[in-house]
């Protein structure tokens, strides 16, 4: 079973399905879209189906650099950002919520950095994602 609510490769998400599944969290998805465009003009996003376990994932990128991955779930979405070590250290010493700092500490370490998941259910969660993105993009 895929993590994303959209787990069938043959059925890519559309705006209506995304809105139906995200419910109230759709406004946070749109907020992140707007914040990314404001902070990183020209950034784009695309639906990808990386694996059956992941399901359909929205990938935001700026140029050739992937900056954020979003997986729709039932009533919320998971935003995952890969932080290099310097960005992770800056985030850990910031005023981010304790839950986000715990996610950074517990994140799997890969060659390209730590894969930090944030379940977005509130405006505070969406703000934390954008703060993590600022740390990522400044390093």
Shape: globular
Rg, nearest Å: 14 Å
CATH structural fold name = Aspartate Aminotransferase, domain 1
How much helicity do the residues have?
Answer: 25-40%
What does this structure look like?
There is one protein chain. A hairpin with a 2-residue loop joins strand 2 and strand 3 (65-72). By secondary structure, the protein is of the alpha+beta class. It has a single domain (15-137), classed as Aspartate Aminotransferase, domain 1 (Alpha-Beta Complex). Helices cover 39% and strands 27% of the residues. The model has no long low-confidence stretch (mean pLDDT 96). The radius of gyration is 14 Å and the shape is globular. It has helices spanning 15-22, 26-39, 85-92, 98-106, 123-137; strands at residues 44-48, 57-62, 65-72, 77-83, 108-110, 113-120. Strands 1-2-3-4-6-5 form a six-stranded antiparallel β-sheet. The chain has five helices and six strands; from the N terminus they run ααββββααββα.
Task: Produce a short descriptive summary.
The chain is an alpha+beta fold and 139 residues long.
């Amino acid at each position: 079973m895929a993590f994303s609510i959209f787990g069938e490769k043959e059925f890519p998400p559309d705006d209506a399905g995304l809105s139906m599944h995200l419910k109230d969290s759709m406004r946070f998805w749109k907020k992140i879209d707007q914040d990314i465009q404001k902070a990183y003009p020209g950034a784009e996003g695309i639906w990808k189906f990386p694996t059956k376990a992941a399901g359909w994932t929205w990938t935001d990128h700026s140029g050739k650099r992937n900056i954020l991955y979003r997986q729709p779930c039932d009533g919320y979405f998971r935003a995952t950002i890969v932080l290099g070590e310097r960005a992770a250290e800056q985030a850990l010493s910031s005023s981010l919520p304790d839950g986000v700092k715990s996610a950074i500490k517990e994140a799997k370490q890969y060659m390209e950095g730590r894969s930090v998941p944030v379940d977005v259910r509130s405006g505070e969660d969406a703000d934390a994602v954008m703060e993590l993105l600022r740390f990522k993009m400044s390093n």
